[in-house]
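User: Show me sequence and structure for the first protein, then do the same for the second.

Assistant: Starting with the first protein.
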Amino acid sequence: MDACILVEYAGLNPFGGLRSDSVPRAGCPVVNLRQTLDDLTRNGFSVCIVEEVQGPTQARSRKDRFISGHAHPGSPYVYGLVAVDHDLDFPEPMPVVGISRSARGYCITSVFETLKTYSSEDGLTEEALVTKLRTCRDHHLFLHKSLKNNSSGTCRWGEFGEGGLLWGECSARHFEWIEGDPVTELLFKVKELYGLEEAVTFRNVTVSSENRPRSLHLGTATQIGVIPTEGIPCLLKVLLPPDCKGLPVLYIRDLLLNPPAYEIATRIQATCKLMSQVACSIPGFTCVSSAKLVKLLELREANHIEFCRIKDVLDEILHMYRNSELNEILKLLMDPTWVATGLKIDFETLIDECEWASGRICELISLEGEHDQKICSSPIVPREFFEDMESLWKGRVKRIHIEEEFAEAERAAKALSLAVTEDFLPIISRIKATTAPLGGPKGEILYAREHESVWFKGRRFIPSVWAGTQGEEQIKQLKPAIDSKGKRVGEEWFTTKKVEDALIRYHEAGEKAKARVWELLRGLSAELQTKINILVFASMLLVIAKALFAHVSEGRRRKWVFPALTGFEKSKDVKSLDGANGMKLVGLSPYWFDVAEGSAVHNTVDMQSLFLLTGPNGGGKSSLLRSICAAALLGICGFMVPAESAVIPHLDSIMLHMKSYDSPADGKSSFQVEMSEMRSIITGASSKSLVLIDEICRGTETAKGTCIAGSIVETLDKIGCLGIISTHLHGIFSLPLKTKNTTHKAMGTECVDGHTKPTWKLIDGVCRESLAFETGRREGLPETVIQRAEELYFSVFSKKELSGKIDTSVVDFCSDIGCNGYGSESCHSLPSSTFREAGCKLSHSTNSTEVLQKEVENAIVTICQKKLIELYKPTNTSKLALVQCVIIAAREQPPPSTIGASSVYIMLRPDKKLYVGQTDDLEGRIRAHRSKEGMQNATFIYFLLPGKSLACQMETLLINQLPDKGFHLANVADGKHRHFGTSNISLDTMTVR
C-alpha cells in the first residue's frame, strides 16, 4: 500500500527507509488506530495492522514486528476488542455484489462475509438495479457474462439500446467478470477473496419477491428524494424526526426503495396505527448492528459494554411482551422483521430464547449499579495508577467469578503501597525538612503513565555530606529507573529493588485477573453465538420498532393520516365499478411542506384512470406529480401520507419520470435519455402500476414529439394503469387518439389585478395558457425581450388565423381559456373548421355580430332584472339596481368609471360562444382576454352591480340560464364551481349594498 494513499485518506505520517527498494509504510499512534481503520475501510481499502514486539531489545537492532489484524470494507473489525472499555462503533460492512441476467430480468446477489449470508433478487429492471448499486457501496463487484447477451444481439454490452445505463454505472467502478452459475461462482470468489476455508457455508436469506412491488427506478428515487439529490425535497427527512439517525433511517430508506408485499404493508400500517394509540411508556429501543453483533461473537471479541447492549435488546423485547399494550405491536412486528432478516422465528421461541440469553448475561456480566469492585487505593501511591491498571478488568464480570484473582490483586496492591511507603516516604520527609524557603532540592512520588510504574522523581536531593540522618539509607538504595527495553528513563527517575519487585507482583496479578476476565467474556461469546439468529432477529425488530415509532410521531406532528390500503381486482379486463382499483387522495399537500404550519396548498386527486394534465408554467404540475408519487409510495409501504384522507391500492410499481438531461458520457441527448426511460416505463407498466410523466417529449420538435406523446398515451391507456401525463404539447388534443380511460385535467389559474396567476389546484378540463411571458418577466428576463416575443407571437399566429391557414397544433395551442382557468369540456378539441368559419364571419358578416349582441343584451336584462326584483322586493324597492348593459366593441376599452367597481361581463368569442365572468378590474380582465391568440378583436358586454357578492351570484345565474335560451357557453362548468356559488340563490341571506 503506497504511503501517500494512506496519508491522503487517513492523515497518517509516512515513514520508511531512504532506499528506493524500501517498502513505504505509514504509522499512527495506537490511540488513533480505531479511527484510522474506520477511515480507510469506509474508503474501500483493506488494512494490515502491524505491531512491534514489546520487550527489551539491543541498541541499533532491527525491531521485531508481527501482523496483529486485518480489516477490510467487508469486515471492518479487528482483534483485541474484548479489552476495550468503551462502546465499539464501526462502519457497516460492505457486501460483495454480483450482477447477472436471467429470463426474468436483471439479478443482483449480495454476499456478506461478516454475516455469512447471501441474498438474491431477480426480475429487476435496469433502472431499479442501478438504484440498488447507487445506494449500496460494495467491497467488490463481479459481473456475470450473461450481461453481454443484450437485446441487440451484440456482445459489446451497453453500446446499443438496453444496458447502457447499467454499463455506465459499472464502468465507473472496478469489477471482474465471472461465468458459470452466478451464485456458486460468486460464493467461490468471496471465499477466495477473504481466505476462507472451503467448508465455510453461507446462509441464503433471500425472501420471496412474489406479490411484492418492483423496486424503485433511479429517476423515481432521486426525484422524490429517497436518494438525497441536490435541489430535490428529501422524502427521508420529513418521515422521521431530525434526531432519528442511523439504522432506523437505513431501514426506512431500504423499505421505500424496495416496497413490501401487500400483506407486509398492511402489517406495518396496523403496527403504526397501534403505535399512535398507545398510552404507556415505550422502551428506548436499543439499536445494534446485526453485522457487528455477529462478528464480535464469532471472533469472541465482544466486551462487557456490548454484552450490556445485547441484554438491553433482549430486555426491551421482553418488556414489550409483558406489556399488554405493546404485546400486540410486538406480534405484528414479527413478519416485517422476517422480511428484513430472512429469518423465520416462532413468537414463543423468540420470547423463550430472549429470556435465557438475558438471564445468562445477567449471571456473568457486572451490570450498572453493582459496586462491589472498587478500585484499590493508597495514601501514598497516585490514584491514577490504580485506576489505569485495574479499570482494564474490574467491573466487567461479577466478582463471584474472579474472587481468587480479585483477592490476589488486592494483596499485591497493598504490598506495592507498603514498598513505596518504606522506600520513598522517608526520602520525601527528609527533603521537606531540609528544603530552603526559596528553593532547593525537590522530590515526589509520581505515576509514570507511559511505563505503567510508580517511581520517585527528584533532583539535587542527594546530600553533599553523609551524616547518617533519616532517609539517607533509603537514598542509598535508589537506582535509576529503566524502561521495558533496558534504557534509563531520564536523569530524575529512580526506584528500588523492593518497589520493582512489588510492581512486578502487582502487574502479574493484574494480568492474571485480566486474562480470567477475558476468558469469561470469550466464553460467553461462544455461548451466545449458538443463539445468533435470535439475537439478530431481536436487534432488527427493535430497529424497525424505533423507525416506525419515530415515523408515527413525526406524522402526527405534521397531521398526516393513515390511508386505506386496497388490493386490486383480480380481473384485468374488467374495470372496477366501485373504484376498488382507483386511488383517491383528499387534501393532498406536498410532502416537503409542513401542514401543521398551514403553508400547504391542498388538492384532491380522484384517479380511476390515466390523467392528461395541462397547466401553465409554475402552475404546480411537477409538484403535484411528486406529491402523488410520494403519497402512493408511502401508502404501499404502510406509512402515513400527507393528506386529509386517502385510498391507495397496492400498486405493483411506481414510476415517476421528470425532465431528462443529456448524458455526454453515454453519448446520448436528453431526448434519447427520455426515450430510454419511456421504453423502461412502457415495458414495466401493468394495469396495477402508477405512471407519472412530467412534460412528455419536451426534448424534440413539436409535431413529431406530439405524435410520440400521443402514442405513449394510447399505449398506457390500453395497459389500463393509473397515472398522470403532463404536457405543454396542446396539439395532442387534436390527434385522433384511441383512448378509453384517459381524462383531461388541468392546473387552475385565476385573474388577480388583471394578471393571470396559478392557483396550484387540480381541476377538470384543459388549460392551454402557458403563462410563458409572465414567467419570463417574473424571472427577470429583460422587458424588451418579452415585448418583442409578444409582438412576434401575436403577429405570426393572428395572421395565420385570419387567413384561414392556422394548423391544428396552433389552433389548440392558441385556444382560449377563461381567466379563472376553468375550461369547459366543449372547448377541449375544437376542429379547425370552426375557427376558419368564425374568421370568415368576422371579415364579412358584421350584421350577424350586431344581431348576436342585441340578443345577448336582451337575454341578460331579462334574466338579471327579474332576479334583482325578487332580491330587492323584501327590502327596499327604491334601491332596485337596474341592469344597464354597455357594449365594448373591438379596439375599445371600458371607461374609468369601471375601475374598482364590481361588474359582470360577457365576452363574445369569434366562434360565437360566450364567456361569462365577473371582476372588480374590468380593464385588466379585458386586456388579459384580448392578449390571447384570436381574441384581439373580441366584443364585450358588461353591467355594473353594487358589490362583489351580488356580481358573483349574477355571474352564476347567467352561466346556468343562458344555455336555456339557446346560447353556447365556453365555461358552462364554472356554474358548478364552489367559487361561483350555485344557481339556487338563497334570498334569505342575500343583502344588497
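Switching to the second protein now.
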Amino acid sequence: MPYIASNLRLLFSSSSSFSPFKLSLPLLSKPYNPNRPFFRVLSYSKRQRSTTVPQQNHNSVSLHKRNRSTFKKGESMEESDKGSSFGFNKRRAEGKDKDDRGKKNLQLKVRRLNPTNTISYVQILGTGMDTQDTSPSVLLFFDKQRFIFNAGEGLQRFCTEHKIKLSKIDHIFLSRVCSETAGGLPGLLLTLASMGDEGMSVNVWGPSDLKYLVDAMKSFIPHAAMVHTRSFGPAPCSDAAPLPDLAKSADPIVLIDNEVVKISAMLLKPSCSEGSSINPGEMSVIYVCELPELMGKFDPKKAVALGLKPGPKFSELQSGKSVKSDRQDIMVHPSDVMGPSVPGPIVLLVDCPTESHVLQLLSAQSLSSYYADLSDDPPKCAKTVNCIIHLSPASVTGTSNYQKWMKRFGAAQHIMAGHEMKNVEIPILKSSARIAARLNYLCPQLFPAPGFWSLQHLNISVPESSATESPVSSISAENLLKFTLRPHAHLGLDRTNIPSVVTPSEIMDELFSEIPEIADAAQHISQFWHGPRETKEGISPIQDNELMVEEPWLDENRLPSCLDNVRRDDLEIVLLGTGSSQPSKYRNVTSIYVNLFSKGSLLLDCGEGTLGQLKRRYGVEGADSAVRNLRCIWISHIHADHHAGLARILTLRRDLLKGVTHEPLLVVGPAQLKRFLDAYQKLEDLDMQFLNCRYTREASWNDVECNSESNKSPSTPESLSNEGMNNNSTFQSQSNLFAKGNRMQSVWKGTGVPVDNSMAIPLLKSLKKVLNEAGLETLISFPVVHCPQAFGVALKAADRINSAGKVIPGWKIVYSGDTRPCPELIEASRGATILIHEATFEDGMVEEAIAKNHSTTKEAIEVGSSAGAYRILLTHFSQRYPKIPVVDETHMHKTCIAFDLMSINLADLPVLPRVLPYFKLLFKDEMPVDESDDVIDAVSVAL
C-alpha cells in the first residue's frame, strides 16, 4: 500500500515534532557498550547537592515552578559505595522521613450546619455496571455536610472523573465490613490524610467487626487517619456468648442526631445464626436517614391578632419558641401562628446480602414504625419512607420474601443498586473507556477490545421463588441518579446528572475529527503484523498459536534466542494499572498480570481496583477464570498503591474455589504485609499462605537446593539471614548497597516484624512446585532503594525444546517495583527479555525523583540499557501526566510506555518500540497537568 507510506511521510514532515521513522534510523542510536558510563544523573552527598538539572522538555509542567524546597530538614542524600553516581533519599529508604501527620490527630472539619438545608439529596456513585466487582456507594448531600455509605474499590476514580470532592466528606458508613464494601477505604483515608498542609480525617462508622479492618489497616495507614473510627452493635466472636436476638430490638441505634439529619442503624444477621454467635463479616446494616420536619409558613396577621408587635418575637416563634403576647395576657405558641409543618423525608439504605438475612429482615421490630399503614386511619406514630436504596443483590431482592417486605413501605420509591445485570455494558469510568477505545482502534494487537459481557449471555431472569409474589415497582440504579430531599417542592427522582451513553461509533467519529491522520497511522501499525511480505522485512504473519520471527532493525535489538519459534500462548503481560500514588481518571494504580495461559497466571503487585481492571480486560467470566487460576501473587512493598486490592482478589478466589479441592494461594511480599494479612484474616478468610520476599532471594533458593541435594534438615535462622547468604550469590557483590557493613544494611534488616524461619523452607518448596507447574524456573526477589523492605523481582521461564529438538532458553521478566536506580536492579536485569521499570517522573524532575526514591524515564531506560535488557517497558507514571508521560523519543529505540489494559504478547516484543511514536500522535495535544482538585500535591504518603 504505497499510498499509506506516502501519506505518512507528508504527515510527519510537517512542523510537528512527531516522526514514526525517527526511531528506526541507526544513526540515532549507539550499540550497547557495557563499558560506557551508566549513570549520568546528579551526584548527591550529605553535605552538598548539585544545582545542575538536566534540560527540561519544553512541554513539562515541573514542580520546580512551585518554588518550594524538594527536601525537608533532616533528609539526607546518599550515593552508592562503588562510584555509581546516583542519588537517593536514605531517610526515606529507612522509613524515617515521616512528618508529624503520622503522630498527631488530623483535622476533623467542623462545619457550621444549616438547619433549613435549601439543598439535600441522595445520589448513586459507582454502581456495578461493567465490572460488577464492588458495592456501589451512596452520597447523602447537604449544604454543609456530606455522608458516604460504602467505599468500595474504584470510588476515588469515579469521584475524580465526576468532580465529586472527597475533601468535603465528613462521615463514611459501611453497610458490611468486607472487601466488597470497604476495598477503597484505605486509599481514601490516605488521600484525605495528605490533603492540604495539615491533612484531614473523617468519621468512619460500621458494625462491631469494623475493629478487625482497622487493626489490619494500621499496618500501613498512619494511626492519625483512623482515630475517628466508630463501631456499634454486639461483637461477633465464636468464643463469646450468643448474640441477642436483633430482630426483637425495638429501637434503632442512633449514630448521628444534629440539626440537619438523624442517622440510625439496624443490624441484620443471617437466620442460621439465630441464638448463636456469628462470624466477622456476616453482620449487615440498614441505615435510616431522617431529615427534620420543616416548620409551616409564618402568618404575621395571626400574630398581630394575638396581640404581638412585629419584632424579635416573630423570629422566636418561627424558630419554634413560645412567647408572651404584648397586648394580651396569653402565651402564643408556634402552632398558633404557623401553617402546617412538612414532615422530613426519610431514606433507607438496605444491605441484605443473602437469603438467610431476609427472615430477620421480615421480623425486625425496629422497622415497624416505618411501614406504611394502608388503612384509612394510620397511627400517629407512623413515619413515611420516601426512598429506599437496595444494596442487596438481585438474587435476594427477587425472592418472594424480599418482595413481600418491600410492599410494606407503600408508595416509597425503590432504587435497586445491587448489581443490576442489564447495565453491564455501560462502563463506569467513561474517560478511561474512551481512551481504551481509541487505543484499541490505533493498535488492537496491544489493546484488545474490552471484555464486557454480551447482554445475550446474561441470565437476568427473576428467581423462581418470586413467582408467587407480584414484583414491587422499582427502578434500576444509574450512576449519579439523584433522589431530591430538599427543597420539598422537588421531592423525588432527578435524572439530570446521569452521564449520557456514548457509543463506540461516536468515540471514533470524535477521534477522526480531532486527528484525521489517525486512520493512516492505524494502517501503518498493522503492517508490523499483517503487511505484505515485501514490507514486513522478515516479520511472519501472526495468528493464534503460530510462530513469529523478525530480523532486527538495529544491532542492539538483535532478536534474543528465547524468542526463537515463540508461540502466542507462551506469555502475555497485561498492565492492569500504570499510575502511581492514587487511582486517577485515566490510570489505575499498579498491578501487572502475567498470563501463562494453560499454565496459570501470576500477579506482580495488586493495587486497588485490580479486580475491576481484570474484568474490563477479560470480561466478568474471563476475570473469574483468571483469578481462579492464579498461581502466586508477588507484592513489592507495603505502600497502598501496590497492595490495597489484594484482599478483594483473595476473597473472590476463595469463593470461586469453594467446594473444590485446592491449595491456599501463595502470597510473596515484604514482612510488613504479613502483619496486614494476619490481621485482615480475622475479618475474612483469605485462603492464602504468606512467604517473605527475603526468602525468595537467590541465596535462599541456593540454600533450598543444597538442602534437597544433601537431604539435610531445614536451615537454621542464621543460614537464611542476610549474613548467612551464599558467598557465590550475586548479591554479595561489593557494590551491594544492602551488604553487611554498608549504609543501607539497616533498611534490609530492620523489618520490626519477627519471621518464623522454620516455615521458610517448606513454603519455598511449595513455591518451587507452583513455579514448575507454571513452566517457570525461578522467581527471585532482590532489594531495591525506595522504602524499608522494598523489592524487585525476576521471573525466569524454563528452557524448552522446539520441533527440531533445539533447546530454547526461557524468557526472563524483571519488574523493578518502586526504586531509585541501584546496582541490585541492574544485576538482576542482566539479559532480561523485558524489564518493566517504574518511571514516575520526567527527565527534568531528578530532584523530585530522588526525594521520593523513584526514577525518571531516562534513568529507567539507562538501567535497562546498562543491563542489556532486550525491551524496556516504562510504567508507574505520576498522575500529573493524565494520559501520556513526557518522554524524549531519542532514548526510546528499545523502549515503550505502558497504558492501562495494554496486553503485550511475548511474540510482539520485537515490534513494541515501533508503536511508541503513534501513541504520541494519539495524545499530541496533551499536557502534563494536575487532573482535578482532588489530585493532591502532597502525595508522599502513598508514594
